[in-house]
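Protocol check, entry for the methods section draft. Step 1: assemble the input record (protein sequence plus ligand SMILES). Step 2: submit for complex structure prediction. Step 3: store the structure tokens unaltered in the notebook. Ligand used here: adenosine-5'-triphosphate. Step 1 record:
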Amino acid sequence: MQNESITPREEEEMRLLVVLEQVGKRMRKELALLGDRREDVVGFRQEFWDDVRMNFSDSTEVGETWSSIMQQVELLAERERSHKVASEAVERLTKQFDSPYFARIDFAEQGSGPEVIYIGRSSLVGEDGDTFYVYDWRAPISSLFYDHEPGPAAYRIPDGEMKGELLLKRQFVIRGGQLKHMFDTSETVGDEILQAVLSEGSDTSMKSIVATIQKEQNGIIRDEKHKLLVVQGAAGSGKTSAALQRVAYLLYRFRETLGPDQIILFSPNPVFKGYISRVLPDLGEANMRQMTFRELIEARLGRRYEVEDLFAQTEALAAAEGTPEGEARERSVRYKGSEHFFITVERYLKRLEQEGVRFRPLRFRAMTIASAAEISEQFYGIRASDGFGTRAATVRRWLLERIRQWVDSQIGEAWVEEAAELVDGEDIQRAYVDVRRRGGFHDEAFDDEEQMGERLRRRVAEDAVAPLVKAVKSYRFIDAVAIYRELFESRSLFASCSPDGKLPQGWEWMLQRIEDTIGRKTMDHEDATPLMYISEAMEGFRKVEGDIQYVFVDEAQDYSPFQAAYLRRRYPRARLTVLGDFNQAIYVQSQESGGFGGWTRLMSPEVTSVLRLTTSYRSTEEIVEYTKGILAPEDAASITPFHRSGESPIVVACDDGGRLGERIALDIEEMLGRGYGTIGVITKTAHETGNAVALLKERLPDEVPVTLITGGAAELPKGVSVLPSYLAKGIEFDAVLVWDASEARYGKEKDRKLLYTVCTRALHVLRIYYTGEVSSWLPRQGG
Ligand SMILES: Nc1ncnc2c1ncn2[C@@H]1O[C@H](COP(=O)(O)OP(=O)(O)OP(=O)(O)O)[C@@H](O)[C@H]1O
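Step 3, stored output:
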């Protein structure tokens, strides 16, 4: 019975106490468990070596020692595993102690009375196992909170829909176990809690948005129907946030079958990787795998080539702009990222099934173990229908056997004898252990010495060919680079593979460029993905990660259609969630496709969903309206700001670079004085950052931290960060100060989106500085 004199707030405060008491009880239990086990583990570690019987006096003893160590390691791992389970629970409960839930809904299913549901980051069930004090935000019923206003409502259940009426929707801010605020949605205009959250300062890492997920975002988070989800969202519309909440949702929804290592997220750069790494742990989930496309390239090609990265490519294109060389390169970058080229390569691969695969001969010193022609004969001797994978694997086995036979044939050869003379004690020891393992060195064995000699020689020969074995095992006998070059070296071959039978414009230039770069063991960024694709296809995509169930691609507008198609092949069984903003397509390689074409056509329309997010949550209304003015009106039309007001953007004219630095330094001090924790000074290229840092350090007091962010940095620090535009992708700052937005720096058509990307990183303050003439992309009203 509700007491008339109790206000809803008092009622909620009492209920909070009940929940906290439950959390406390659980916590005590878990802590006791943890305490027991911790002592266990610490003590055990100390005893670890005492219990191991250490004896290396002979091989039998070594074996004994080894197994005794392994036994202890197994035991320790076992104990640490259960210890981890307990500490995860303690961690979760600690968070629940701080803030056990953030929402309440009262829902009456059709034909029954209202049920009161509290929603939090994780669930809390009473000791009876029946009382749900708090529901996890990912439970089916919780979606009512995100999707509906009070009134008729429904939520999805595994076998249909549960309909009813939402009677109350209440939001709470609970911190440190205290009820700070509560609002009923029906009582307030707009979303007070979202307002409050967005007005806070930004941090050096991204936050979870669990308490304020918006309806359109919830649609992305909970989609289970589509194999390909493509999200076009305005800058700051919560694409990355929704993606991470979706990962957490999927891990919960499919917890029996899906682990974090079966989810992979492609991030734009290492800075961004660090930036988002705290969201999932904050939601109580382990992080998924994160990768940059660059890492894929490095893993495959980096050992043998110095591969240019996307940023270096961008800067090289910028530097050569306007020259014939620059134009030719740009054309080549666009072409090699295109679907046309992907189809050409696919058709080339088809041809290679019949003929043309280039192999490297297997040689040891001047001796040929298997010639390229022999390898080719083996390869093409296997049915084409078996596919590249089976054929390459069969040839690999054949080559390994061939090496083994060759080693046998070499035991008596002079070079082996000579090398055996030179071996050191350790090798002799190993040969001894070998012979012994085979039952030698007992009374009846008269030929032990001879055996030892033979073992030694064999070992010497095996050691000598070890690099060859390794190369064969990693399929180095397939010469992917020669295969790729061949496509450009033969005009008729290229034309016959090209879908329209034509050579691309600038084909001769591309051929010459490949010769120049690859000959020097360097590689242009635009050649890396096609080469990687050919190389992996030739091995039958043996390294494809069939295990990966979900692939997320953030900042998807930066990928070329070729890269999109390649990723689809690489993760053949995965469902794809692709998020991007065509207004932020800043790289030449993806401009051809309008930023998205490559993705939306990857799968059939029935399994594809293309969604839009148009409300921008990051920046104040003033900043959103201002930055919309940078874009072409048709591109900006649908972007709407969330109603949060702040300072209008300011454009500041400076006489020269020195003055510009001076003015920015002054403004930095002002921003710090106003309590802004993260300030981003964003330059166009990496080239300018060094100069900017030097100027700022000179003018700012020593205690103001100024950090230069480079491509390799993985942490975003507090204070002032100086970084080039492309590293600012996806991240945000309380205040953004744009370094030199002059017409000279941002005057070209392709600078428009770059300037937009840079300016939309700002949460509260945007100031733009320039020397000379101001970029004509900036709206006039700002100054
Ligand atoms: N529902 C929400 N509740 C609270 N904050 C939100 C919500 N959606 C987005 N935000 C905030 O808006 C900001 C931008 O979000 P996010 O970085 O996910 O956007 P994005 O679309 O990936 O942006 P961009 O494309 O510009 O990199 C973040 O600070 C995020 O916390």
